């Protein structure tokens, strides 16, 4: 057999030429971006922004809201005769042509407050037409060309109004058209041009920039106020939800205590009371089972309400017996506070029985009120009063004006949602809450909580005793 002929070695391939696509793509992208910007400018020039809110529409006084219209009216009344006089005396135009040019450059100024871009589309062509009329009678060094002095003044006011109303693309387009037209007119008649058009271009750019900066600053302030309003509402809503969750946890502890007592009493009844019939024992067993099931459901609900990473409350819930500690802590914080609590409140025999929900709510209301005094009225004289009136528990916290400067954080409105929790607690117990500032600069918090008297409790005094 013949041996296979070895194949010739592969020819070395030439190195690939550097690709030119990215360069072409970059050039195309640059041209495309320039085309898009040009289209945006043309669209902004031909589609003015809607009138929207008038200038100074949010001013508190009527004359301030009417100020832009008064300025536009005054500017028009002054510019019309001045322009006619300048064109007839300095530029030697006939009265008819001067009146037509002055009307085209002055009357549109009435639209500065609402439609400045539309006014510019009338004033600018009128200025170009006036420049063409001035070429014949004007001699070198005789007057300003291509824009007379009244035209420059009116144009600057108008461009300032455009900056206050239109977006950036329109401002760029207006400035480019003004600059290109001024330079082109200066090149057409170089003998009449004295460089004034360059100064006009600079002043026009300054007017547009200042107006645009003021407009954007106003928009930013309005957006900031709107965002602060939204944030305040969200903060208040979040505080409300957190307080409701806290109330739910505290109510669980209050109700769970009673349910546990019912369970223990129902389970131990057959052992404590001898001779119970079988039906009564089954009834007590059913009561204990229902109480245990209710406790299980409450704990399950509490797991959903409790925030992540928080455990159950093992300490007893505070009440009226701990308000004295709150007042003492407030005094240590630098607030002179006094406490007045009725002697008939408590759990001793012969006194009013305060429900645990009311007891806890009263404590929380006093706690939040004193915390607000420390934050918002440091050093203010504060009086705390807790007393029973007929079937209600009255909680009153009154503070005077602050005797020390308030911190910057509190002065800016940080916090301030403690009243939300107070209202929730008062609503929970079926009571009422009255809060508000005092004429001397202080603040008052008054809560009225329903107070139930236990059945069969002895009367407080002789007037409550039954008649013989």
From TrEMBL:
It catalyses: ATP + protein L-histidine = ADP + protein N-phospho-L-histidine. Residues 1-26, 448-468 are annotated as: Disordered. InterPro entries: HATPase_C_sf, HATPase_dom, Sensor_HK_TwoCompSys, Sig_transdc_His_kin_sub3_dim/P. One of its GO terms (molecular function) is protein dimerization activity. It holds the Pfam family HisKA_3. Residues 243-308 form the Signal transduction histidine kinase subgroup 3 dimerisation and phosphoacceptor domain. PANTHER family: NITRATE/NITRITE SENSOR PROTEIN NARX-RELATED, NITRATE_NITRITE SENSOR PROTEIN NARQ. This is histidine kinase. It comes from Streptomyces finlayi.
